[in-house]
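fold-stage: in
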Amino acid sequence: MAASTERKVVLVTRRTRLEDLVARHGTLAQAQFYVEHLGANFADYLQENAAYAAALAVASRALQAWGRYQVLDRGFLPNFVFAPDDIVVALGQDGLVANTLKYLEGQPLVGLNPEPARWDGILLPFRPEDLAAILPEVAADRRQAKAITLAQASLPDGQRMRAANDLFIGPRTHTSALYEIALGERHEVQSSSGLIVSTGLGSTAWLKSIVTGSLGIAGALLPGAAAPAYVAEPWDSERLAFAVREPFPSRSSEAGLVFGYASPATPLRIRSRMPEHGVIFSDGIEADALRFTAGMEATIGIAPTRGQLIV
């Protein structure tokens, strides 16, 4: 382990909406024309970009004073190798923190909120101005960290995909997902629009929307029936919740095993029956996906290491 003052800091950044637009349309003027032609407020894009640039400048000054550091765009996360003693800093939003966590092996992660007036920042407890004071405490292991359970999909060929929020298993395009699902002694052949597996952190996100929609449909079909209250899992939960989206019962497919929990003792197993277009991706990042086509089996469980979010 390197001395606390020698530990490298990796600052993970993201492109703003304005930078994405300029990259797509070539110039700032063309980006402005595109946004205003749609009736949107271009000034909001400029304000967000300016706020992020200012936050990045503050964080960069703290890192220059610290010593060893590296700036990493989120697009390079899948291929970047973090050192065991790295300190990782993510400059908001919450999604960037989640996307970064799944590529770490227990390194501490500091979430910075670049614009608290815009972003809620559940995973961003600090401002860029706090970074200079936080780094020495993190480097000396004097700062508390909150453990976050990560999900992991593993394929027989050694490929794996981790998730801080959720895994999606299903079709790349808007077609039916065909697969076999097994949990313990239960086993079904299913046709659906895919399924998600959620961590405790992700139980307030995509999973919540799926369960809320299902409860709303059930309430409309069964008026007067008491609907159960949805309760999110803790961030360090020892189980993963899964939900099947739009399961279709037929002569060759069932729709009984549509919600449940996977644990270290009872992992979830999915065998693809999709000739093509089958994928597994995590945390909404479709570009970084595992191919999941006919015959491949994925084992879904809890990752061996947990995320460590500095609080």
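fold-stage: in (second)
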Amino acid sequence: MDQYRFFDANAPLRPYVGAGVTYAKFYKGQSTSALSGLTGGTPSNPTTISVESKFAATVEVGATYAADEHWFVDATVAHTFLKTRATLSTGQTLDMKLDPDTFALAVGYI
């Protein structure tokens, strides 16, 4: 993620904006018994689901606050623009727009 930080490097508060690329990898997609019932699956042969892993753009805004010469606090909010496709074992596909938001709060010591 590339970031642009505002203010002087020694300023106690340094807001920033950033942009980058996220790779979303989906493991072991599971369907429900309701989905199996709707799509023709049976208890012995349930409908399975696989979700395509994708690259997506991510933007962020945050700030770092230096409490003293060693301790800092960093807060970030990021948004990823993620569209992907799920494929059911029955052959049906579902296009999905997930667009997750991420919130992070970190305390660090240098």
